[in-house]
Amino acid sequence: MPITSFLGSRSNVLSRGRESSSGEGGGRSADGPKPTSSSDPVAFAYASAIRAHEAAGEWAAALVLFERSAQCGVRADAHVYCAALGACRRGGQWQTALDLINRAKDADGLEPNSVMYTLAMAACNAAHAWEATLELLDDAAKHAGGLDAHAYSVAMGACAQGRQYERALSLLDEMERDEATRANSFAWNNAMVACNRAGQPLQTLALYDRMRAGSYALSEHSVAAALVACRNASDWQRAQAIYDGAKSLAPSSPMCTDVLLDTLSACEQWPLLVRYFDASRAAGAAPSAKAYERAVEACDRIDPDRALVLFDEMRSSGV
After folding, report:
1. 56 pLDDT band (50/70/90 cuts)?
2. Span 269-302, pLDDT tens digits
């Protein structure tokens, strides 16, 4: 049975239970304290159904279901709002997400929490509305009782979209002052991307060095961001040192290898480029189309016969 049909068939029974608990069946009196929204089985059912639609990729149906809950007089709790905001994130519906936050603020007995704000920020990022993300971040700091590590990571993603490297650095310092949020590698990676996109490669490399010095968990995204900074700074020696220093990550990562090969190509380091291309394949990484193109370009200058071999290999591999 479809979720919405299940909800419809059950709503009358659940509604009768809700009415009974409000006074007539030996429950609370009508003028006494009302049940909290978290104890409302109808709200719980709606939240579950909205999440099910969102998980199935049916974000529009999920939002229709949220509106249906309001029309039916269901008092939406934080779980229902989070489910609807998750659907906004899935569909990139940033304006709807902002509206939901405002509606939650106006709701009696409900204050938007950090999870709700983070989901709304993620919806804005999905729609590349980075300015709205940062406005929500400021609003969350006032109304949500503090930010968690995920919120900072999403905010750094907005800084990367908008090339707001100074804001990213400021948020990073703020995040690191709180023991509960520091050492969030995703946020550090996004801050490095923000610096790269803003044309600040030295700031990116400084962040990478701070990550290594602080024994933070590096990922291929961390290494790739540092390599992009080296490419932008035309510093192939530093790129080589970073790639070699990340032996457990870089050689098996097509992302990292592609950026290194780009850097070596831009600096015309042809023999070194071919060497790293071969080393990456020996590490078990399947070359990307870009890696093949760079290797063919290098071999065309130092080993034309191999350039032809690699070109044929690239075509036959289907990349």
Report:
1. very high
2. 999 999 999 999 999 999 999 999 999 999 999 9
Amino acid letter, residue 27: G
Neighbours of 162 (CB within 10 A): 19
Q: Which distant-in-sequence residues (6+ apart) come within 8 Å of 120 by Cβ?
A: 85, 88, 94, 97, 98, 100, 101, 136
DSSP string, the chain: --HHHHHHHHHHHHHHHHHIIIIITSSS-TTSPPPPGGG-HHHHHHHHHHHHHHHTT-HHHHHHHHHHHHHTT----HHHHHHHHHHHHHHT-HHHHHHHHHHHHHSTT----HHHHHHHHHHHHHTT-HHHHHHHHHHHHHHSSS--HHHHHHHHHHHHHHT-HHHHHHHHHHHHTSTTT---HHHHHHHHHHHHHTT-HHHHHHHHHHHHHTT----HHHHHHHHHHHHHTT-HHHHHHHHHHTTTTSTT-HHHHHHHHHHHHHTT-HHHHHHHHHHHHHTTPPPPHHHHHHHHHHHHHH-HHHHHHHHHHHHHHT-
Residues 121 and 155 sit within 8 Å (Cβ to Cβ): yes
**Residue in the structure block whose two tokens are 């690191």:** 176
Could you state, in order of their start, the residue ranges of all structural domains in the chain? 34-104+112-128
pLDDT in tens, 141-156: 888 777 889 999 999 9
pTM score: 0.82
CB contact at 8 A, 187 and 218: no
